[in-house]
Design brief:
The chain is mainly alpha-helical. The protein has a domain at about 195-230. Helices cover about 95% and strands about 0% of the residues. It has helices spanning about 5-40, 45-130, 135-175, 180-230. Helix 2 packs antiparallel against helix 3 (about 135-175). Keywords: Coiled coil.
Length: about 230
């Protein structure tokens, strides 16, 4: 083989190599473009996986938000219930302590009047036993009259103040269903305190019933077996 033929074959092989390299490059570029299209395509596995993951994540987030909202609503309901109870107690206590303060003020004046009245009776008894002069009795009677007038004024003031307060207290109790609400709250508190005891008793009763049921079933099966054997 001469040199010209070798050079010619070498050039042919070089062209074939370049053509193959060019073909491989075009294939590689097309493959990358196809992968990108497949990733961006709505129906591609990668896109579908992303969609499924995104949908699952969104559903999880929605469930979490719904749970948090439900818990928040329950907490708000409890706070409203506690606030309602606290408001009711504050309203009743406010009126009650105004009523109690007026009553205590009258009791103080009534005790003073009772003391002066007792002193006047003792003065009168001493005068009747001739151990006091009329002048002492007269001074004691003047003190008794002053105490009686003061007691009448205190009684009138207490009555005029306590009657509207008593009516207001009764109105608050009736309008707010205070007795029912407070009774329900007491019942809930008592139930919470006795809940564990009730649960223990319920479990004991359930276990006892289970044992009795199993015993009855075994007895029935034994009777059935003996009856079947006799036949």
């Amino acid at each position: 083989m001469d040199i010209a033929a070798v050079v010619s074959k070498a050039k042919v092989m070089e062209r074939v190599g370049r053509s193959r390299n060019n073909l491989l490059g075009v294939y590689h570029q097309r493959s990358e473009e196809w992968k990108q299209r497949q990733t961006l395509c709505p129906g591609s596995p990668g896109s579908l996986k992303k969609k499924l993951f995104s949908t699952a994540e969104a559903q999880t987030r929605q469930r979490k938000d719904a749970l948090q909202q439900a818990l928040q609503e329950v907490q708000e309901a409890k706070e409203v219930q506690l606030d309602s109870k606290a408001w009711l107690l504050v309203e009743l206590d406010t009126t009650w302590w105004k009523l109690r303060a007026t009553f205590d003020k009258y009791l103080t004046e009534a005790k003073k009047y009772a003391t002066v009245y007792s002193d006047a009776v003792r003065l009168l008894q001493s005068y009747m036993s001739c151990s006091l002069q009329f002048l002492d009795v007269h001074e004691g009677y003047a003190q008794f009259q002053a105490a009686d007038t003061q007691h009448q004024e205190a009684l009138l003031e207490a009555w005029s103040t306590m009657v509207p307060l008593a009516g207001l207290l009764v109105s608050k109790i009736l309008d707010s269903d205070a007795m029912i609400k407070l009774s329900n709250e007491d019942a809930r508190a008592a139930f919470r305190s006795k809940f564990s005891t009730l649960c223990d008793k319920f479990v004991c009763c359930l276990v006892d019933l289970t044992h009795k049921h199993n015993k009855l079933v075994r007895h029935c099966m034994q009777n059935f077996a003996s009856t079947w054997a006799r036949q």
